[in-house]
Amino acid sequence: MNLPYSESHPEKKVGIGFTNRLTGSMYTSEVAFNRRLILVDIENIVGGGDSMASQVRAAQSAIESVISPRPYDHVVLACGRFSVDTVGFEWEGARRLKVRSGVNGADLELLDVLETEHVGERFTEVVLVSGDGIFADSISHLAPASGTDVTVVSRPEACSRRLRMAARNVLDLDFDPNAVLEAA
Predict the structure, then answer these.
(1) pTM listed for this prediction
(2) Roughly how many angstroms between the first and final C-alpha of the chain, as a whole number?
(3) DSSP state at residue 180
(4) Which residue in 78, 142, 153, 161 could disulfide with 109, CB within 3.0 to 4.6 Å?
(5) Is 4 helix (H, G, I), strand (E, B) or coil?
(6) Residues 6 or more apart from 162 whose CB is under 8 A from it?
(7) Per-residue pLDDT tens digits of the chain, which is 184 residues long
(8) Alpha-carbon distance 100 to 69, whole Å?
């Protein structure tokens, strides 16, 4: 006689199809080692809220040359509503796109990720690609509280002093948004 799976294996509950073994490996409260979160304020890098396709592609190339992407990086891009189509279609690879209108909209979206998504518990390294001083407090609290290594990547002329002081590492991004416009 063939019994249903749940009756022949009473220690394993059948639901969506996860066994106890699988569920235990999927959801853990332990710190995930060697995970890197990359937060990109694309408007800060390209120099404005209404970006062109060539700017987004050139910015991505410049950023990747500085941070050397890894296969399991978690990338979050933020922009305003006027850039969402261009950024969404032109940035290559897996990423999460956050959009908010208004002054500092992209910054506020990235701050929301930093402050509400338990970044210190989920990632051992955070790379912030922006130069805006609005991130200084969140970045300065993140590293001591969780031991998360924080790196800021920014164009040298666009990085605030407060943000430079808050981050453990600062990498200069060699990107001129006006050069991309002239070439196009």
Answers:
(1) 0.79
(2) 73
(3) H
(4) 78
(5) coil
(6) 133, 136
(7) 555 544 555 554 444 444 444 444 444 555 456 899 999 999 889 877 666 888 999 999 999 999 999 988 999 999 999 889 999 999 999 899 999 998 899 999 999 999 999 999 899 999 999 999 999 999 998 877 778 899 999 999 889 999 999 998 999 999 987 776 545 4
(8) 26
